[in-house]
Amino acid sequence: MSRLFKAAVAENRQIIADHFLLTLHPLTKIVEPGPGNFFMLSTDSGLDPLLKRPFSLHRRVGGDFQILYRIAGKGTGILSKRKKGDVLDIVGPMGNGFPPARSRDKIILIAGGLGIAPIFALAEKLKKNKPMLFYGAKTGEEMLCLSELKELGIETVISTDDGTSGIKGFVTDILKGFLSRHASRITHHVLYACGPGPMLMALSALANKFSVKGHIALEQNMACGIGTCLGCVVNTKEGYKRVCKEGPVFPMEKIIWGEGMGENLRKESN
């Protein structure tokens, strides 16, 4: 089955300032996407912008799928103006998603900012496993999907940098407190995370300190999305890996966090 297909815009709804929920209806049968997979979308039918943009799967709704995105540049600005019935050229699903959880695993999900997009898809899939979610953002105004998370019935710990919603502080500091309080019972805990580079770097250090395994979804600037251009490589203990091909999900203990790497990793495309 081809991974190149066309999809019609079913809805493109603004949910908060500069953030949109895009629902797409594939015009042909597609390969079933899973949490952590992504799609390359053409934001316009012209040549400017020329390259497709990568977006994580946010949710499957019947035969449709949803993308959660923020206006971050020209491409996403154009995408935000697409109307119901507009047809987009898409490639996907692509990449390696989150690995399945084992029955004995105590699952902790961690999302930072727009990292809630793929983590929500994972939370929906794993809700029977009763995962716990730590979700952080800069301010309360930037929190997304709160009502949908409540409907899933997942225990959620909210934190914001400025304290306008939930606990004040970085989500990794809140998680550190939780792991410290449960240090004697975290043998089977497994972390699944997506968020800004600095958050993921801090989370990896935290997991190493507590000897907890986990998986993180990375996003880099991508040109091709199929591993040809080598523009999205990250350094791992097994050598350089392509985020679009070997990722975007990696075991967090295998990432080599060099100086400035956290700042270079992106959480959204433009």
Short description:
By secondary structure, this protein is α/β, with parallel strands linked by helices. 20% of the residues lie in helices and 33% in strands.
How many helices? 6
Say how many strands there are. Answer: 16
Please give the share of residues in helix.
10-25%
CATH class wording of the largest domain: Alpha Beta
Secondary structure class reads: alpha/beta
User: What's the helix-strand series?
Assistant: EEEEEEHEEHEHEEHEHEEEEH
Instruction: Name the beta content range.
Output: 25-35%
What number of domains?
2
Subunit organisation of the chains: single chain
What is the mean predicted local confidence, pLDDT?
87
Q: Tell me the major beta sheet.
A: 7 strands, antiparallel
Distance between the termini: 29 Å
What does it look like?
The chain is an alpha/beta fold. It has 2 domains: 4-94, Elongation Factor Tu (Ef-tu), domain 3, CATH 2.40.30; 106-264, Rossmann fold. It has 6 helices and 16 strands. The protein has helices at 74-79, 116-126, 146-152, 171-181, 197-210, 261-264; strands spanning 4-16, 19-26, 38-41, 53-56, 59-61, 64-70, 87-94, 106-112, 132-137, 155-160, 167-168, 189-194, 213-217, 233-236, 239-242, 249-251. The strands form 3 sheets. Strands 4-3-7-1-2-6-5 form a 7-stranded antiparallel beta sheet. It has a 7-stranded mixed beta sheet with strand order 11-10-9-8-12-13-16, sandwiched between helices. A two-stranded antiparallel ribbon has the order 14-15. Helix 4 (171-181) runs parallel beside helix 5. The longest helix has 14 residues, at 197-210. The protein is globular. The model is unreliable at 266-270 (pLDDT under 50).
